[in-house]
Specification:
This protein has 373 residues and is α/β, with parallel strands linked by helices. Helices cover 39% and strands 18% of the residues. Strands 8-7-6-9-12-17-18 form a seven-stranded mixed β-sheet. It has a four-stranded mixed β-sheet with strand order 13-10-11-16, covered by helices on one side. α2 (51-73) packs antiparallel against α3. It is globular. The chain starts with 8 loop residues before the first strand and ends with a helix. Bound molecules: 5-S-methyl-1-O-phosphono-5-thio-D-ribulose (MRU).
Length: 373
């Protein structure tokens, strides 16, 4: 694992290594996923979660499907393994028919794309893998696919640091920041989006206080955000989601800072359920509302947030708590995982390109031109 970042995800010779986020903060367990089915399950069950981390995991899911196929068709040998440092381990890929291999790539992309519908980064990463996994023979296809997966991961980490640099000046000495869900190292390549801004400001020597919404029903705020902020020595206090209005309305918050799962062409943002009420509160009580996200979270094929698909999660995430029933047998639950915040409520979106104040269609179109260059 690389220095100074959380070991959210990595790939080592046919194994996707993730920290099992469903067990945090009680247990820090690294899981070894050795098949595309296991990777898809880990994404679906939120063992690995957060839009950028899901994208990286899915790219590695495709890579592991390729390895699984190579091992199957090269029965009797130790099989082939990809490794970030060592490249291809297990000899040259010879005598492998590229046709069935391409079908394996397509099938694994389909499997990964059906895990979670809202995070744009998932589909962005799978598009990169689809474009890359081609070649005049099986060996070239494999090399290209492995290169693309490692690049998706490495580029993401670099962009997170850039987001941190651009956003850090917003965090002044003594600032009180409210955040929701987890947009930190655990949700990304290891540094974060919203929390990267806080990590950079902290490294620059400023001291501030963070309030982390617990984030019902799966508690990403209290279980994950509080865990990673406190590990870095940042002052963090957890609150029930319903207590945010009391804090914001009594002038005890200087800014709200969150991540995003998908951003439409007009700047509307889908993020964890409970984000929209924070933006409405900020508007009402004149508190800046910031969103941090890399370009891979933008989906300019969708004109507005209304078109962003919102994942519905199982009812028992709401009707049970820590395995205990909290609603009477047979009671249903409304459990959308995300909500949509209109661009008009957003003070600025912080990306790797800089701070986009009062985002709108025109500014995002300019960003899109920059991203294409
Ligand atoms: O359901 P989750 O835990 O995957 O939801 C994650 C979020 O809503 C994050 O805020 C978002 O992905 C930003 S991650 C940098």
């Amino acid at each position: 694992m690389r220095q100074g970042i959380i070991p959210t995800i990595d790939y080592r010779k046919g194994r996707v290594l993730i920290i099992d986020q469903t067990l945090l903060p009680g247990e820090e367990k690294i899981l070894e996923l050795v098949s595309p089915v296991a990777v898809a399950e880990a994404i679906r069950s939120l063992r690995v979660r957060g839009a950028p981390a899901i994208g990286i995991a899915a790219a590695y899911g495709v890579l592991i499907a390729i390895e699984e196929h190579l091992t199957r068709v090269s029965a009797g040998t130790a099989g082939y393994r990809f490794d970030r440092e060592e490249g291809l381990v297990g000899g040259e890929i010879v005598g492998v028919d590229p046709g069935p291999l391409a079908e394996v790539v397509d099938e694994s992309i389909r499997m990964m794309s059906e895990t979670r519908p809202t995070a744009a980064n998932l589909f962005w990463a799978l598009d990169r893998m689809r474009e890359a996994a081609v070649g005049s023979d099986a060996a070239e296809l494999c090399r290209n696919a492995a290169g693309a997966a490692f690049r998706i991961h490495d580029d993401e980490l670099r962009l997170e640091r850039e987001i941190g640099e651009h956003g850090a000046p917003l965090v002044e000495e003594g600032c009180r920041i409210l955040t929701h869900c987890n947009a930190g190292g655990l949700a990304t390549a290891g540094y974060g989006t919203a929390l990267a801004i806080l990590y950079t400001a902290h490294r620059e020597g400023r001291r501030f206080r963070v309030f982390a919404d617990e984030t019902r029903p799966l508690l990403q705020g209290s279980r994950l955000t509080a865990w990673e902020l406190s590990r870095r020595g940042i002052d963090v206090t957890v609150l029930c989601d319903s207590a945010a209005a009391s804090l914001i309305s009594s002038e005890r918050i200087d800014m709200v800072l969150v991540g995003a799962d998908r951003i439409a062409a007009n700047g509307d943002v889908a993020n964890k359920i409970g984000t929209l009420p924070l933006a409405v509160l900020c508007e009402k009580f004149a508190v800046p509302f910031y969103v941090a996200a890399p370009w891979s979270t933008f989906d300019t094929s969708l004109q507005s947030g209304a078109m962003i698909p919102i994942e519905e999660r199982p009812a028992d995430e709401v009707t049970r708590f820590a395995g205990v029933r909290t609603a009477h047998e047979g009671i249903g639950a409304y459990n959308p995982a995300f909500d949509r915040t209109p661009a008009g409520l957003i003070t600025a979106i912080i990306t790797e390109f800089g701070v986009i104040e009062r985002p709108d269609g025109g500014k995002i179109a300019c960003l899109s031109d920059r991203a294409r260059r």
